[in-house]
Amino acid sequence: MSKVTVRYWAAAKAAAGVAEEPFEAGTLAEALDSVRARHPGELTRVLLRCSFLVDGDPVGTRGHETVRLADGGTVEVLPPFAGG
């Protein structure tokens, strides 16, 4: 398990009620499962529309269970942005 920081932006930040928080997870899928467990409700719905960056790299269409997380890494949760 790696210690990572999950950072929320825009609607994800509003739904989580925090800008960022620490988690322990080995993959992006595990981190997102932990996020959903900690924040059931609106954030879970927002995550369905989000894209993700792991240590600055776009996850794209890769399966979240295949995206390994490095200790000290960062997961950015990016909802769709208007006007972009």
UniProtKB/TrEMBL annotation:
- CDD domains tied to this protein: Ubl_MoaD_like (cd17040)
Q: InterPro entries per the record?
A: Beta-grasp_dom_sf, MOCS2A, Mopterin_synth/thiamin_S_b, ThiS/MoaD-like
Q: Which GO terms describe its molecular function?
A: nucleotide binding
The region annotated as signal peptide is none
Q: Which family does it belong to?
A: Belongs to the MoaD family.
The biological process GO terms on file are: Mo-molybdopterin cofactor biosynthetic process
One GO cellular component this record assigns the protein to is: molybdopterin adenylyltransferase complex
Q: Name the SUPFAM superfamilies for this protein.
A: MoaD/ThiS
> Per its UniProt record, what Gene3D superfamilies does this chain match?
3.10.20.30
Give the record's keywords alphabetically. Nucleotide-binding
- Cite the Pfam families for this sequence: ThiS (PF02597)
The protein here is known as Molybdopterin synthase sulfur carrier subunit
Keyword check for Nucleotide-binding: yes
